[in-house]
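Ticket #4471: complex job returned nothing on first submit. Input attached below:
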Amino acid sequence: DTAVSQTPKYLVTQMGNDKSIKCEQNLGHDTMYWYKQDSKKFLKIMFSYNNKELIINETVPNRFSPKSPDKAHLNLHINSLELGDSAVYFCASRDTRADEQYFGPGTRLTVT
Amino acid sequence: AQSVTQLGSHVSVSEGALVLLRCNYSSSVPPYLFWYVQYPNQGLQLLLKYTTGATLVKGINGFEAEFKKSETSFHLTKPSAHMSDAAEYFCAVNGRGNNRLAFGKGNQVVVIP
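Support reply: We reran it on our side without changes. The output follows.
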């Protein structure tokens, strides 16, 4: 049983396109995140939702728009893709009581 | 605000030798500290964490870490490296009551046969 799943695993697209990445967790957690991992493996938080409400919004271009239809899902839509958006995007959910985050397998986005 | 420093992006260790990865943190509130491991083309997996209580914490795969408040450190060790330990290791800090993890830049561990 996959705890945090993401689709797609790989995404190759051209500059200027719009794409979405989906994330689902079956752990019953209230809090979910999007992280970006760059080519040097540096991980940076982008967004966090708690029970469908946006609670963290880092300095991310407004081309990136997260959406949480319910607390088990957190999607990321990216408009007008740029070369610099190429990265691995990780979704995570947080067990508030244990203060542990569980990560999805990642989506490798390549913009050409 | 919280931050973590991991020195030495690449760490080479011989199979059977000690693995030591250093992590120093900065936090304005009592910290929660974590080590995560990332195997190639996979997500991050929690190795161990420190929240309160015993300062020496044991994790999965034979790893352990010691919280030293006086040194603001949380170094990760494993007595004997195995080939399967080759991976990227991240230290992270979360201030108590804070919703966000701040990650270090990671250590790429290479195990030499």
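The mean pLDDT of chain B is 93. Closing as resolved unless it happens again.
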